[in-house]
Amino acid sequence: MAKRQNDLRRYALIGAQQEIARLELQLENILRQFPELRRGRGAAAKGSRQATAAADVGSADRPTKRRRRRTMSAEARKRISEAQKARWAKQKSTPHGQVQTGGARKKR
Fold it and tell me: 10 Å Cβ neighbour count for 38?
């Protein structure tokens, strides 16, 4: 029984390797026809086999470029700090359990 499972696994591995080779060939044909797809592919453009197999051109769930964090000026940090301290002071000044409202708001 174990020999049969090993044979089955070995044949599945061979089939998977053939499928990967077929997909790599198909990807190269597509990239030859549309060279603009090759730009910005990172390691796949350099011929990395793993990246080529893993690359999914045009996928909706593909992560976009990571945005750089904005840097705040010292003045902006100070304004935010002062505004937050004012909120804390306002909250501290109200009796415990009461909520101050800015007026009657319309229910949604």
Answer: 13
Residues 6+ apart with CB under 8 A from 61: none
Cβ contact 45:38 at 8 Å: yes
- Residue 41: partners with Cβ closer than 8 Å, 6 or more residues away: 51, 55, 57
Whether 2 and 27 have beta carbons less than 8 Å apart is answered as no
Contacts of residue 38, defined as CB under 8 A and 6 or more positions apart, other chains included, come to: 31, 45
Q: Which residues contact 20 (CB under 8 A, 6 or more apart)?
A: 53
Q: What is the pLDDT of residues 38-67, one digit of tens each?
A: 876 554 445 555 454 445 555 555 667 788
Residue 84 predicted with pLDDT over 50? yes
- The CA-based dihedral angle spanning residues 70, 73, 78, 84, taken in that order and rounded to the nearest 10 degrees: -10
Q: Which three-class secondary structure state does DSSP give residue 42?
A: helix
